Automatic annotation (TrEMBL):
Transmembrane segments: none annotated. The keyword Repeat does not apply. This is Response regulator. It comes from Streptomyces celluloflavus. It comes from the Bacteria. SMART domains: HTH_LUXR, REC. Residues 4-122 form the Response regulatory domain. The modification 4-aspartylphosphate is found at residue 55. Pfam families: GerE, Response_reg. PROSITE patterns: HTH_LUXR_1, HTH_LUXR_2, RESPONSE_REGULATORY. The keyword Transcription regulation applies.
Length: 228
């Protein structure tokens, strides 16, 4: 299958560079270009894009708002958003993950990293994990209200009560950045069994993909950030 990619960035030159890179791959092609969030949302609906490379800072409707619009549209449940940012650690990135993005990538990433990120997001099987991802989540997501508060983490016990003990265990390992194969090896089960647990946890918690599972694990207090 060909991965259909939508580019959303207000810099024409940057979009052109991304288009050349994406279109050079036999398994993917660019189906549209947007210069702001509103246009990105409309093109996501009209082009049938699988993955949106979304800049955060754009005029008018920014990438954060556009990501939320896409994730909340029932017609776009299969669309995956990859946030592109100049800053490896950025509060807007965590907000984007909460809004429904599948992950993020720095604009300084190598071409192979970008192409790999597109394939990973399209597959919906893994969180994009540049070095900064774990630090970003630790630094910003953990600043929200804790398990005793009124925010999302304050409802942690209620949300997690739907999971079995094994599903909770798998969720902790997913939040640690482990792949299905790595989790399977650690738990001495098959990768297929792990995938089943992950899918069930996603369904019970209303997560779009593994990135959302990581966010939920931190928000509910199931996983605590390490204090450096």
């Amino acid at each position: 299958m060909t991965i259909k990619v939508l580019l959303a960035d207000d810099q024409t030159l940057l979009r052109s560079a991304f288009r050349i890179l994406v279109d050079s791959e036999p398994d993917m092609r660019v189906v549209g270009e947007a210069c702001d969030g509103a246009q990105a949302y409309e093109l996501a609906r009209s082009t049938g894009a699988d993955v949106v490379l979304m800049d955060i800072r754009m005029p008018g409707v920014d990438g954060l708002a556009a990501t939320r619009m896409i994730s909340q549209d029932p017609q776009l449940t299969a669309v995956r958003v990859v946030i592109l940012t100049t800053f490896e650690v950025d509060d807007y990135v965590v907000q984007s993950l909460r809004a429904g993005a599948s992950g993020f990538l720095g604009k300084g990433a190598e071409p192979d990293e970008l192409l790999s990120a597109i394939r990973i997001a399209a597959a919906g099987e893994a969180l994009l994990s540049p070095v900064a991802t774990k630090g970003l989540i630790t630094k910003f997501l953990a600043q929200g209200e804790g398990p005793d508060g009124a925010g999302p983490a304050g409802r942690g016990a209620e949300r997690l009560a739907t999971l079995t003990g094994r599903e909770r265990e798998v969720l902790v390992l997913v939040a640690g950045g482990l792949s299905n194969d790595e989790i399977a090896e650690q738990l001495a089960v098959s990768p297929l069994t792990v995938k089943t647990h992950v899918n069930r946890a996603m369904a019970k918690l209303g997560a779009r993909d593994r990135a959302q599972l990581v966010v939920i694990a931190y928000e509910t207090g199931l996983v605590r950030p390490r204090v450096q």
